[in-house]
């Protein structure tokens, strides 16, 4: 089919929408490593996990074999509010770059939370509600996940308790207040509300917190409050399962027009949007039906894939969570203070870590000033003001398109545009004022935290 027939935005009819999430693990011959109990170093059982997570999500977390999970009707109904998300042909960007490449992006920023995180937030809130729970606890960094979860909880009438990394709580009042609009209670972390929070404060007085520390607090609160469970917005297998809706919609839309991407690009923090976007494509690759060049993009200041170690590590600073085998910079790693681009988690999805280690995908890291420059270039031609996180993918999509310009190759590029950046204007301001630098951790700094990885015999 000729290019002219492909609309600027490809939407799906209601009848074309995915009705089930796709579990990529079912097509992996080499399965990702299981979560381990840090006390025994034995795989976490469903029973142990159910203290922290609700039962249905524990099943999804542990299931490496079921290929499809039906999306419950109530979640399908919620998705209708903001899905399908548009798959956009970036004609204007292509023209501006003068590239023969064809660029598509899947835009997940069309909802109030401003990112893809709502796809999993509604699923996790739904299963908690269905189990008769009273509420959920979680952590949030910049606030996208907390916002998404508070929207989902408000819709279902669940209580939502968010521990927000203290520096974000103080410096980013907008998302904090959006969460409150949706009825969530928001506590700056570390706090004196939890044992682990009090310990961290005693050890590091005046600390402005970290994601790993907020996770520890949220888990403690959930396990010690009857009727509550903990939910997490990234990294876990269940989250990647829910996010497969991004990739499924993309694939259905592209198949409609007979388009097959050559390169698929996504930003990677904990790996959920990338894992979701690539899921059905990676499935084909694993089954030997098609080949794709799959690229994870991470910040040079938090380079889990490109400079991390594939090993069992803690998911949180307080070391209360199970151990996950993943590419990690060590649970004590905190990106430099001037890092403004998000994607600051020390680890990476165990599923993506396994696929990367087995050579099914590659990863690149990019310095933040180049990311913001790409973000502006994109905003000026495509109209959307992208989230800094998403802009990592934009940067590499542009780089790949410019390579095509040199070689004359007409490659098709698909990338995930995970969200909008309206609440990240302080980061953009730093970029404009020339206050943004590209701090890249030294090998010694990285080695320091890797030394503290837990010892696990496999
Ligand atoms: C949270 C977030 C990310 C990174 O999380 P992943 O789990 O790696 O997808 C990327 N983009 C936006 C807009 C986000 O809010």
Order of adjacent strands in the largest pleated sheet:
1-4-5-15-10-11-14
Roughly how many Å apart are the termini? 51 Å
Mean pLDDT: 95
- Give unreliable regions as ranges: none
Question: Which strand-content bin applies to the residues?
Answer: 15-25%
Number of helices: 18
Largest sheet report: 7 strands, mixed
The gross shape turns out to be globular
Radius of gyration: 21 Å
Name the helicity range. 40-55%
Which compounds are bound in this model?
A: pyridoxal-5'-phosphate
Number of strands: 15
Protein architecture, described:
With 458 residues, the protein is of the alpha/beta class. It is 41% helix and 16% strand. It is built from 18 helices and 15 strands. The strands form four sheets. A seven-stranded mixed sheet has the order 1-4-5-15-10-11-14, with helices on both faces. A hairpin with an 8-residue loop joins strand 12 and strand 13 (323-328). Helix 3 runs antiparallel to helix 5 (118-130), helix 9 (195-203) packs antiparallel against helix 10 (211-224) and helix 11 (237-256) crosses helix 12. The termini are far apart. The structure holds pyridoxal-5'-phosphate (PLP). The site of pyridoxal-5'-phosphate (PLP) has 17 residues, from helix 12 and helix 16.
Tags for this entry?
binds pyridoxal-5'-phosphate; 15 strands; 458 residues; 41% helix; Trp_synth_beta/beta-like; 7-stranded mixed β-sheet; tryptophan biosynthesis; TrpB-like_PALP; aromatic amino acid biosynthesis; alpha/beta; TrpB-like_PALP_sf
Task: Give the topology.
Elements: E1 9-10, E2 20-22, H1 46-49, H2 55-62, E3 68-70, H3 73-79, E4 87-89, H4 91-97, E5 102-107, H5 118-130, E6 135-140, H6 144-156, E7 159-165, H7 166-171, H8 173-181, E8 185-189, H9 195-203, H10 211-224, E9 228-230, H11 237-256, E10 263-267, H12 272-286, E11 293-299, H13 304-307, E12 309-314, E13 323-328, H14 350-357, E14 362-366, H15 368-382, H16 388-407, E15 412-417, H17 425-432, H18 443-450
Parallel strand pairs: 5-15, 6-7, 6-9, 7-8, 10-11, 10-15, 11-14
Antiparallel strand pairs: 1-4, 2-3, 4-5, 12-13
Helix pairs in contact: 3-5, 4-15, 5-6, 6-8, 9-10, 11-12, 15-16
Bound molecules: pyridoxal-5'-phosphate (PLP).
């Amino acid at each position: 089919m000729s290019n002219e027939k492909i609309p600027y935005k490809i939407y799906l009819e209601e009848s074309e929408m995915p009705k089930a999430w796709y579990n990529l693990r079912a097509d992996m011959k080499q399965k990702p490593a299981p979560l381990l109990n840090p006390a025994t170093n034995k795989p976490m059982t469903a029973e142990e996990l159910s203290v922290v997570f609700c039962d249905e999500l524990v099943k999804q977390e542990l299931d490496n074999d079921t290929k499809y999970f039906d999306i419950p009707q109530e979640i399908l109904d919620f998705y209708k509010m903001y899905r399908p998300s548009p798959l956009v042909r970036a004609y204007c960007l292509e023209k501006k770059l003068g590239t023969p490449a064809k660029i598509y992006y899947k835009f997940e920023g069309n909802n109030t939370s401003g990112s893809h995180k709502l796809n999993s937030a509604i699923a996790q809130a739904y299963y908690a509600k269905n189990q008769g729970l009273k509420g959920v606890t979680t952590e949030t960094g910049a606030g996208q996940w907390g916002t998404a979860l508070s929207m989902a909880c408000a819709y279902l009438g669940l209580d939502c308790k968010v521990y927000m990394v203290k520096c974000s709580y103080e410096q980013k009042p907008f998302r904090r207040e959006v969460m409150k609009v949706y009825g969530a209670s928001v506590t700056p972390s570390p706090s004196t509300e939890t044992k682990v929070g009090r310990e961290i404060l005693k050890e590091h007085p005046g600390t402005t917190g970290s994601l790993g520390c907020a996770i520890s607090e949220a888990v403690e609160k959930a396990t010690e409050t009857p009727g509550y469970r903990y939910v997490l917005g990234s990294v876990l297998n269940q989250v990647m399962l829910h996010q497969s809706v991004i990739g499924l919609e993309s694939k259905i839309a592209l198949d409609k027009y007979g388009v097959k991407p050559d390169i698929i690009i996504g930003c990677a923090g904990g790996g959920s949007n990338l894992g979701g976007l690539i899921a059905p494509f990676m499935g084909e690759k694993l089954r030997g039906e098609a080949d794709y060049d799959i690229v994870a993009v991470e910040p040079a200041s938090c380079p889990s894939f490109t400079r991390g170690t594939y090993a069992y590590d803690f998911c949180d600073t307080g070391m209360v969570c199970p151990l996950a085998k993943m590419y990690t910079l060590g649970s004590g790693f905190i990106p430099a203070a001037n890092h403004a681009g998000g994607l600051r988690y020390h680890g990476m999805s165990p599923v993506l870590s396994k696929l990367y280690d087995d050579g099914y995908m590659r990863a690149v890291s990019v310095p933040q000033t180049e990311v913001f420059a790409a973000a502006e270039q994109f905003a000026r031609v495509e109209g959307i003001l992208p989230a800094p996180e998403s802009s990592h993918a934009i940067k590499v999509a542009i780089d790949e398109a410019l390579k095509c310009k040199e070689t004359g190759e007409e490659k098709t590029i698909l990338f995930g545009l995970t969200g909008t950046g309206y609440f990240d204007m302080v980061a953009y301001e730093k970029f404009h004022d020339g206050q943004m630098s590209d701090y890249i951790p030294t090998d010694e700094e990285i080695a320091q935290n890797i030394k503290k990885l837990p010892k696990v015999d496999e």
